[in-house]
Amino acid sequence: MTYDSTLKYLVEKYPQAFTRWLFNQQPAEDIEILNTELSTEPIRADALFFVRVADAILHLEFQTLPQSEPPLPLRMLDYWVRLYRQYRCDSDAARSWGFPP
In this structure, what are the phi and psi dihedrals at residue 6, rounded to the nearest 5 degrees? Predict the structure, then answer.
């Protein structure tokens, strides 16, 4: 069993002990073990540009309705993280704008 697998097993088996250790207090009784698979559902950007001269990524998102689910700021954060992970640019090089602001 690998180091990661061993620790995952121990956390799943003894969540009370780990939360007590990490938070340095008695945890609530209703600890829920969540699914470890994070959803990476496909998303599509309305406009995505890679600006090679500036070594930056310019991402524009156009939205016609003032409300959306998830909210536009959360979607922009999701896009930024995915762009950063895929292109490994400096954190200052990925710029996102959502319209309307």
Answer: -65, -45
* The overall pTM is greater than 0.85: no
Task: Give the torsion through C-alpha atoms of 48, 50, 55, 58, to 10 deg.
Answer: -20
Q: What angle do CA 72, 97, 63 make, to 5 degrees?
A: 45
List, for residues 28-69, the tens digit of each pLDDT value: 777 887 777 777 778 777 766 666 666 667 777 777 777 878
Are 60 and 47 spatial neighbours (Cβ–Cβ below 8 Å)?
yes
Q: Is residue 66 classed as helix, strand or coil in its secondary structure?
A: coil
Supply φ then ψ for residue 93, to 5 degrees: -90, -10
Distance, CA of 60 to CA of 69 (rounded, Å): 18
